[in-house]
Amino acid sequence: MKEIKEYFENLLEKAEIEAEKDKIEKMLQFSELLYEKNKFMNLTAIRDKKEIIEKHFIDSLLLTKIIKEDEKKFIDVGTGAGFPGLVLSIYYPEKEFLLVDSVRKKVEFINEVIEKLDLKNVKTSSERAEELIKNKRESFDTALCRGVANLRIILEYMIPFLKINGRFLPQKQNLNEIEEAGNALKVLNAQLENVYKFNLPESNDDRIILEIKKMKKTDGKYPRKTGVPAKKPL
Ligand SMILES: C[S@@+](CC[C@H](N)C(=O)[O-])C[C@H]1O[C@@H](n2cnc3c(N)ncnc32)[C@H](O)[C@@H]1O
């Protein structure tokens, strides 16, 4: 545990991310719970402790370089074992997070971590994004989504959840999907404002965070019925 703690602190320093000791402690507890549970439940394909720290925790924390003080209500769709949303909820105890994944066992794992770490600012849902939207339309300042689907598909899931002027900050590994997302951005009244490029501090792997702003209300016909956004992307 001590070795992993030093490794985590070292990567935080290299990535120029500041984090208080008690938050680092909680994140390490979360990583330990994930490591143990992952031995008999498939929560993540990354099984090495150090790799979990870099590819899940540091990668999620890159968002702290972009998130603003006045952003208070966050939604993370397809959060899996809690990335990036659960990590950020530990980093920002004063902000509210809704973590969503349609696979119940993943949400049950997240609920276990919330209880063990006594996190007060996180709620969860195991509904699909296309169902959950029915009572959560235009309710969030910021939307997060990592590794779920192609950009034009997740735009249709996520933009309807945002308040006007809210930001969607999807994490991507390259820029390939931007060009073909033009129509989705237009139809959903959203605009690409910035492209942030990072490198992970140990592997040097490329990481991209897009900043997409919702300009106007989304037409109530989006997102289309469950499954349609993925089958027939905008
Ligand atoms: C590859 S995992 C990524 C998990 C996590 N965000 C990460 O980066 O480690 C994608 C997750 O998205 C969830 N998912 C896919 N489509 C969804 C939808 N329409 N609504 C809710 N969850 C969805 C899947 O159940 C899966 O757990």
TrEMBL record:
<keyword id="KW-0489">Methyltransferase</keyword>
<keyword id="KW-0808">Transferase</keyword>
<comment type="function">
    <text>Specifically methylates the N7 position of a guanine in 16S rRNA.</text>
</comment>
<keyword id="KW-0963">Cytoplasm</keyword>
<keyword id="KW-0698">rRNA processing</keyword>
<feature type="binding site">
    <location>
        <position position="78"/>
    </location>
    <ligand>
        <name>S-adenosyl-L-methionine</name>
    </ligand>
</feature>
<feature type="binding site">
    <location>
        <begin position="129"/>
        <end position="130"/>
    </location>
    <ligand>
        <name>S-adenosyl-L-methionine</name>
    </ligand>
</feature>
<keyword id="KW-0949">S-adenosyl-L-methionine</keyword>
<dbReference type="GO" id="GO:0070043">
    <property type="term" value="F:rRNA (guanine-N7-)-methyltransferase activity"/>
</dbReference>
<dbReference type="InterPro" id="IPR029063">
    <property type="entry name" value="SAM-dependent_MTases_sf"/>
</dbReference>
<comment type="similarity">
    <text>Belongs to the methyltransferase superfamily. RNA methyltransferase RsmG family.</text>
</comment>
<feature type="binding site">
    <location>
        <position position="83"/>
    </location>
    <ligand>
        <name>S-adenosyl-L-methionine</name>
    </ligand>
</feature>
<feature type="binding site">
    <location>
        <position position="146"/>
    </location>
    <ligand>
        <name>S-adenosyl-L-methionine</name>
    </ligand>
</feature>
<protein>
    <recommendedName>
        <fullName>Ribosomal RNA small subunit methyltransferase G</fullName>
        <ecNumber>2.1.1.-</ecNumber>
    </recommendedName>
</protein>
<dbReference type="Pfam" id="PF02527">
    <property type="entry name" value="GidB"/>
</dbReference>
<dbReference type="InterPro" id="IPR003682">
    <property type="entry name" value="rRNA_ssu_MeTfrase_G"/>
</dbReference>
<dbReference type="GO" id="GO:0005829">
    <property type="term" value="C:cytosol"/>
</dbReference>
